[in-house]
Amino acid sequence: MRRPLLMTVLAFASLGGAATPYRSVDLTLTQGTGDFTVRAMASASPTLGARTPSVRDGVASVRAVHQVGDWTVGVSPKLPLALTVRHETGTLTLDLRGLTLTAASVNHEVGDLHVTLPSGPLSASIVNGQGNVSITAPATVGVSATVSVTRGHVRVADREVANGLNVTGTYRTPNYATSKHHVKLSIVVNEGDVDLR
């Protein structure tokens, strides 16, 4: 009986002529003013084209910054990814479908935030100063969100569960107990609504 061959995909970063392997990517994206979109793109390089990313313990660290104007970043689904996003002003759209995320951290100051979650497990933190936060999960993913809103509403599956000033609580999507994968979110919003679907 033949056993299947198990392979680990490794990418390589060239450091001083020697190749350093990495198995995952720690990606930090920082945008100033303008609409900002992050989405999976099969043709993207795992390191956004960086030829010599810093590699430590098998993790390549990559940073990218864009100051003014709209920005769309295609992220490779080829390797696991820890994603940090910082955005000052504008609409932020994170379409994380197709990505394998090990962690995610989002800090957004002013504007609406739209997140489409991946189909696997994830723990993530979201801070939004002023603007609405919309989280959409695949049918196979249950979401548990610890939410703190200074002023606004919280809706789960299109049903309002809390509103007013200093709203705090943990809320779950109706499919949480039966879903294959779980996403745990920490969401802090100064002024705006939170919508979990």
Automatic annotation (TrEMBL):
Q: Which residues form the signal peptide?
A: 1-18
Under Pfam families, the record lists: LiaF-like_C
| Ranges for domain Cell wall-active antibiotics response LiaF-like C-terminal | 122-195
Q: What keywords does the record list, in alphabetical order?
A: Signal
Domain of life of the native organism: Bacteria
Name of the protein described by the UniProt record? Cell wall-active antibiotics response LiaF-like C-terminal domain-containing protein
Task: Please name the source species.
Answer: Deinococcus maricopensis (strain DSM 21211 / LMG 22137 / NRRL B-23946 / LB-34)
